[in-house]
Predict the structure of Glucose-1-phosphate cytidylyltransferase.
Amino acid sequence: MEKTKVVLLSGGFGTRLGEETMLRPKPMVEIGGMPILCHIMNIYDACGFNEFIIALGYKKEMIKQYFLNYMYLQNDFCIHMGQATVDIVRHRQPDWTVHLLDTGLSTMTGGRLHRLRDQLCGDTFMTTYGDGVGDIDVKRLLDYHRSHGKLATVTLVKPRARFGTVDLMGDQVVCFKEKADTGGWINGGFFVFEPGVLDYIGHDTDVLESDVLPRLAEQGQLMAYRHDGFWDCMDTMRDKQYLESLWASGEAPWKRWRED
């Protein structure tokens, strides 16, 4: 297994999902009976990455409880009441190391990385949000990042709807325009960062998209990895329903792992 750590930014409020996120944090909203957070972790695991740092915030206790009880939630088991013991009948457990770290209730996306700097200061690390899926080969993404020698790589995608765009000079990002109504390539949320990126973040209020990435682009330190395949983000209930329909069809494009 590849030793590169994967940071999952999972602390936001997810207000555009309405009632779903009144009850649970957005990464715990389910697609096909499984939290979207686990779909994302499986994307990385399928490419050989199995050490995750989950940056917690809103309703962090639900994510902690889920992973504490993961073995029982994902398997059949038998309880021997008199002996107060539990036997796992069907054992299906991923070989993951999961660090669950509180990064604050109202901390912004860049600030969450800043709070994790002690865990990230030594090596290249990958980062993504807790709501986006795609048929992205993250091993190939990492290889591309290592080939260009810059501090940061952002995966660019072409979504079903318009979000934000970037201006490119070759493969170098020269201007980052988040959520402008112009179409084209957008930030797909699958990043690779060198520890030096943390020097571009100083406060809890720093937003990765509008503060950190533009600073990196201005310094010529942000490169683009173009992904022409499937990508989608569970931003609204319509998005959730769309992803549910793909999963129910048995042909979800982001599913690159085998189920025993």
